[in-house]
């Protein structure tokens, strides 16, 4: 089991670093299996979620008062991270 946890932790660290490179996302460090990101630069979190969904990538956006303008990105397999980053590059 520790191997699974360390692999997941490494993938989360890699995903976090990649998300930091996206100019309109401000990711927060996480102890969970997802990374919360503030959507910045005038981009709409809900529209980002919808646009990514049309490309086959699913993320979650929040519409409640405290988290409006945020999205949640789950830590997945390396191929999921690669697909996410490829799609995000369409926006910058």
UniProtKB/TrEMBL annotation:
Enzyme Commission number(s) from the entry: 2.6.1.9
Q: Which domain of life is it from?
A: Eukaryota
Q: Which reaction does it catalyse?
A: L-histidinol phosphate + 2-oxoglutarate = 3-(imidazol-4-yl)-2-oxopropyl phosphate + L-glutamate
Q: What is this protein called?
A: histidinol-phosphate transaminase
* Catalytic EC class: transferase
Pathway in which this enzyme or protein is active? Amino-acid biosynthesis; L-histidine biosynthesis; L-histidine from 5-phospho-alpha-D-ribose 1-diphosphate: step 7/9
Give the cofactors, semicolon-separated.
Answer: pyridoxal 5'-phosphate
User: Which keywords accompany this UniProt record?
Assistant: Aminotransferase, Pyridoxal phosphate, Transferase
Report which residue ranges the record marks as coiled coil.
none
| GO MF entry, a single one | histidinol-phosphate transaminase activity
């Amino acid at each position: 089991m520790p191997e699974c946890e360390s692999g997941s932790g490494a993938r989360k660290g890699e995903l976090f670093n990649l998300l930091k490179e996206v100019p309109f996302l401000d990711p927060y460090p996480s102890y969970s299996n997802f990374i919360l990101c503030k959507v910045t630069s005038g981009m709409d979190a809900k529209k980002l979620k919808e646009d990514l969904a049309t490309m086959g990538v699913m993320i979650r956006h929040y519409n409640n008062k405290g988290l409006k303008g945020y999205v949640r990105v789950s830590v997945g397999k390396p191929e999921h991270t690669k697909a996410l980053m490829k799609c995000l590059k369409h926006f910058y």
